[in-house]
Amino acid sequence: MNDYSFKEMVKISPPNFKNAYFFEKYNPLVSSYLVYSFYKLRISANTVSLLMTVLAVIAFPLLASQHYLSNLIGVVFLLLSYLLDWCDGSLARFYYNINSVGEEKTARGKSVGVILDVIYHMVYNISVILGFTVLLFNKTEDLRYLMIGMGTALLFLANLAIDNIISRFIQAPPKNQSSTSKSFFHLMKNKQKNAGFGPVKTYLPVLAVLLGIQHYYVPIFFFGYLVYFFTNIVRVLKISQRC
Fold first, then answer.
1. Helices marked H in the chain
2. Does the residue 83 lie in any domain?
3. How many domains, the chain?
4. Rounded to whole angstroms, how far apart are CA atoms 84 and 91?
5. Which of 129, 128, 116 is nearest to 53 (CA)?
């Protein structure tokens, strides 16, 4: 493998500023330096995907803690995992562009990366929801909040599944995707639009902890997911009428 400089790497896999919201323009820039570091250490994109998933899992007990400092550390882990989410795709594109591998091997590697990315977004959201649910339950010892938290997690998964089904009807998959990976491809393409609400899923937990209102996060998101669920049902009914 050739030893590329940082400037050469950026030319091969430029920072994705297009998909960054105005308040997170730092992510593509910082991730470029991280991508270069991962490349120098010969760390694969899928390894980065696994690492960011582990960070999201570690955040769960920290968010569930009754200690405010632990909650702060938990959102730091969330932010780190989200930053790595910007890295794995750029790192994968860089490796695919500089390596002469067969089309079948490249497609297989992309499919694994897509699956890991989808798993990460599921783990991230569930960690936040259940973390704040346990926090609220330990504070109030009210089983109703525990049920609301579980319901919120189920609504998130339901919306994720419905988004995946809808995407099969409104977006054609790439021709080189296998039947198994098509499902994950559509799921990934809609992950910013689904129940995660894009960057909201990242910055709202951070804002909630900073303002000390993390106890209200789950009840608010329960109603948000519920509204989105019924919106998805309406979308499914409209699509079924066209078929």
1. 6-12, 26-40, 45-64, 68-98, 103-140, 143-170, 179-189, 200-211, 217-242
2. yes
3. 1
4. 10
5. 116
pTM (predicted TM-score): 0.78
The answer to whether position 194 is within a domain reads: yes
230: Cα separation from own chain's centroid: 23
- Residue of 52, 112, 56, 59 lying closest to 85 (CA atoms): 52
Question: Domain of 129?
Answer: 14-242
Question: Is 5 a member of any domain?
Answer: no
Q: Do 186 and 173 form a contact (C-beta atoms < 8 A)?
A: yes
Is 2 within the bounds of a domain?
no
CATH number of the domain residue 164 falls in: 1.20.120.1760
- The helix or strand, by DSSP H or E, that contains position 3, with its residue range, turns out to be none
Per-residue pLDDT tens, the chain, 243 aa: give them: 567 777 777 777 676 666 666 556 677 778 888 888 888 888 888 899 999 999 999 999 999 999 999 999 999 999 999 889 888 888 887 777 666 444 444 455 566 777 888 888 889 999 999 999 999 999 888 899 999 999 999 999 898 888 777 776 665 444 454 444 444 444 444 444 444 445 666 788 888 898 888 888 888 889 988 998 998 888 888 877 776
